[in-house]
């Protein structure tokens, strides 16, 4: 079974996966990567000004095979009301 590595970027921090995980194919690894983005975002988007999280999937040789990102854009539409 192929081993895939998931490198994450969130809130200006980068994490390189040194262990990897076994998946039957790249499509299964892609689903895992995309499914992880909301969970990563939940813990990182409220920290700092960087409002994006990303994941890159590498193979055992280090080649990046897939990448995905989730970005939050915020904009006030007038003065916020005190409440």
Number of helices: 1
How large, in whole angstroms, is the Cα Rg? 16 Å
Supply the number of structural domains: 1
Q: Given the C-alpha coordinates, what overall shape results?
A: elongated
Distance between the termini: 55 Å
What does the largest sheet look like?
5 strands, antiparallel
Briefly note the structural class of the backbone: alpha+beta
Question: Portion of residues in helices?
Answer: 10-25%
Number of strands: 5
Mean pLDDT: 87
Low-pLDDT runs of 5+ residues are none
N-to-C order of helices and strands: EEEHEE
Q: Determine the strand fraction and express it as a percent band.
A: 25-35%
Walkthrough of the structure:
There is one protein chain. The chain is α+β, with helices and mostly antiparallel strands and 83 residues long. It has one domain. The protein contains 1 helix and 5 strands; from the N terminus they run βββαββ. Strands 1, 2, 3, 4 and 5 form a 5-stranded antiparallel β-sheet that branches. A hairpin with a 2-residue loop joins strand 1 and strand 2. It is elongated.
């Amino acid at each position: 079974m192929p081993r895939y590595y998931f490198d994450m970027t969130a809130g200006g921090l980068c994490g390189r996966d040194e262990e990897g995980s076994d998946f039957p194919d790249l499509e299964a690894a892609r689903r895992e990567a995309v499914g992880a983005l909301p969970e990563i975002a939940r813990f990182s988007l409220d920290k700092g000004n960087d409002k994006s999280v990303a994941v890159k999937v590498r193979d055992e040789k280090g080649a990046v095979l897939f990448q995905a990102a989730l970005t939050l854009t915020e904009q006030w539409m007038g003065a916020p009301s005190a409440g």
